[in-house]
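S.,

Sequence below, as promised.
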Amino acid sequence: MLIGVNKRHTRERTENILIAPSNSPLRYPIHGVQVMPLNTINLPGLKINADLPKYMVTLEASLGTIGFLVNISGTDEVQVHGRGEKHLTISTSNIHVLNLILKSITYTSMMYDIDSLDIVKFTLGEQIAQIPVLIRQPPIPRLHDPGQGRKISDLVTITTKTFLRYEQLRTMLKSVRQYYPDMKVIVADDNEKPEKIDDPNVEQYIMPFAKGWFAGRNLAVSQVTTKYFLWVDDDFLFTNDTKIEKLLDVLEATDLDLVGGNVAGNHFSFKLILEEGGEDGDCLHWSAGGYHTIPGFPNCILTGGVVNFFLALTDRILGVGFDPKLSRVAHSEFFIDALGRLRIGSCNHVSIGHQKKETPKDTELMEKMKLYNRFRENTSEQQRFKLGLLYFKNRLSCFIKR
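The prediction came back faster than expected:
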């Protein structure tokens, strides 16, 4: 019998592989391996640790085929059935030959899927091991040009939505220019009679009248070309404590997708806990606060939702989106949609101001305020729709807020 190594190309990923301990009759990668669709990978660490007169080993897959990289000749000492098929059997009395073959066992993905799981069964007599094989197409990285000198205006875009509050919007923009004179601001505008914003660094997108809050968020964020965006309300006020750089430091140094700050001294955050239920649906628990401090940032906590002042990774937020069915008062709904999909933090060392609510002396502005307040509040019919959507879309049987 002759044994030689086949030099055909394989894509092998053996880093950080945990192998079953040697006191087990079967050695194998406990946590499994990963392979790209329609590619081949070595199954590392396969070995038999048993003293038997005869060995019969089988490897069985569902979504791929099993092979090996050594060339064997002569059938007196080893018999192989199913090489390159879903069910491979190796019979021999020579454990050294067996382990040499096992060392070169390969798995080949035969189906294209961007994310699926196969379980390879590794069997010796009554001993059975299950090896997870994750078939995954990694997404192509999306790189962002930080610009020459890595200016914050090349990394961050400010986004907002405005409706019947041009005076407040202009005041907010004036405060932005005091601290970030060249940062782009994207405004989603669903006023009935749009007024042009005279600022070379403002992009103003006109929407159908009263199209809605979350539709405006979707539009604004969809036009962001920078790696990050900062969401603000149109009646906020930038101050000396509105340091976008500090929020950027948190996102750049952690795996967070979104981090919020304070609004007028209010460090508001909330937790979302999903309790699995039966056929009637699950139960979602909402409570104020956070989970724990973020390592390296003592002023920040990990949480489930934050205020309307937050810095976020553009691509990650676009992957969740804002439900445009919610046209009026909505906030927690976005974070409910993001549960399990985004990592969220809240920091109390960065804050933004809020413009004072004053009764306008101008008659026209007074009428706009009254109209705005009518749109601002959900009617009983809208509230029923909102709750119905929450329960149906998220398969809930209860929503408990405390």
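Helices lie at 95-103, 166-179, 213-222, 244-253, 314-318, 332-338, 363-376, 380-393.

Coffee later?
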